[in-house]
Write the structure tokens for this entry.
Amino acid sequence: MELEPGSFRDRTGRIFYSGESVFRGLTDRALPEWQALRSTRFFPRLVQEGKIVPTEQTEQVESELPGDWAAVLRHERIPFISYPYEWCFGMLKQAALLQLELIETALFEDFSLKDATPYNVQWRGCRPVFIDVLSFYRLRPGEPWIGYRQFCELFLNPLLLEAYKGVPFQPWLRGSLEGIPPRDLLALLGARDLLRRGVLTHVWLHARSQVGYDEAAQSRDVKRELAAAGFRKELIRANVQGLARLIRGLSLPERKSAWAGYGEDPGYAGADREEKERFVREAVAHQRWGLAWDLGANTGVYSRIAAEGSDYVVALEGDPRAVERLFAEGTSKVLPLVCNLADPSPGRGWRGRERKDLPDRGLPDLVLCLALIHHLVIGANLRLSEVLDWLAGLGRFLVIEFVAREDPRVQGLLRHRDDPYEDYELPVFEAELAARFEIVQRQELPSGRRILYFAVSRGRGRGRGR
Amino acid sequence: MFEQQVWVWFAYLDPSAGSMMLQIILGGVAGLAIALKLFWARILLALGIGRRKDEEAADPETRGGA
């Protein structure tokens, strides 16, 4: 049994892993809420619709779980855990709408959710699924929506920042696990933005009321005052419905993306593309794969090919717009994530372990690294040898493409750089690759400027783990 | 039926007093009646009808505010 270090915030339960199984220990305070939740009409329905992770109470492992638990739940395992700072705009938007749908549905049976964080939403491909069943509790009469502040900070404000100001939210959420407070967002908005939907109430008034009340609340019980004044769940419902309308209407502002059209580059010869697809398809067909990573996935052409022979594919791409496009296609086996591979997600939060770095969440069996190495070695100034060390430590099997210096894309990267990048030469690349991998197959594409390799790590690939 | 302990049981998050008060305004028509009830004394006072009570300094409804 292995404790999930990030499951500490809510003291009424904890997550444990055992092999491929996920367990949740419940305290005696949480047990009655779970029992009540289980007997609602909405819970089994939402599980069946794939919106909440399948969950059952189990007695098998109770004694194996460290700690004293009143009950143990077993959850279906999510293929790959991801965090909102790795999602594109559309993903955060879908997750927000799921969160709102859950609370609105729960309210009909006098339930609510005690938090409203995107870290409670995970993905099965492009479908969001809510994983924290302990978040549901029986709403007390007169109680407001506890999670409203958190909803604004972690869902609404990041979406508004991107929709209204064109600023990608990912670095902000990676910077702060608590999200963007109304006051901070307000400081970034102009006077004209106050007229845009949702800003006056959820941002301006929200920031003002927090300044006005939060200090005074040290000496008064606002919850009790609200209950005494007749606060009821219809107010929560009206707010939730208003938020859903607002969020449904948000969209990404137009911006030209460097990569979202890369696959259609006319400089990328048609014959090259066909041959490359054939090569990748053959490599993928070599065996059945569990988890595959497509590094620098662009619009996901090769992620989809990898999905033909894998249980699950994580498509990592630095450009949020390209991820957006891949997400919009809605495949069930490909999880598209925004990730700059020269600066991938680190461990975050308490002791750096609350949110894990990428390899800690499961290493791939197969790695695709196509048309990427020039971006890492020249674009991001990484040493070729270190990039190959990194790849050798990821998965055992690798499909990698070397793009020669004569290629217009590489020329573009080199144009304004004086460094000779002596390690970025085919003979150096092949020697370094051969030092770490056994090359199963090598093919030069018709243009002569791109060479593909299917390689097996010389025993140092770590394979799948958590 | 829930009384005393109710409010501290499951809210491990600080909901923020300001965020809770704002929910009256975001609650649509149903919120209007509650807003009137909560702020009635202050509204009367503003109209010059209300009476300023001695203990007002300790009355939370008349301090702070959005």
About this structure: Residues 263-457 of chain A form a domain with the Rossmann fold fold (CATH 3.40.50.150). Chain A has three domains: 1-33+51-77, 122-248, 263-457.
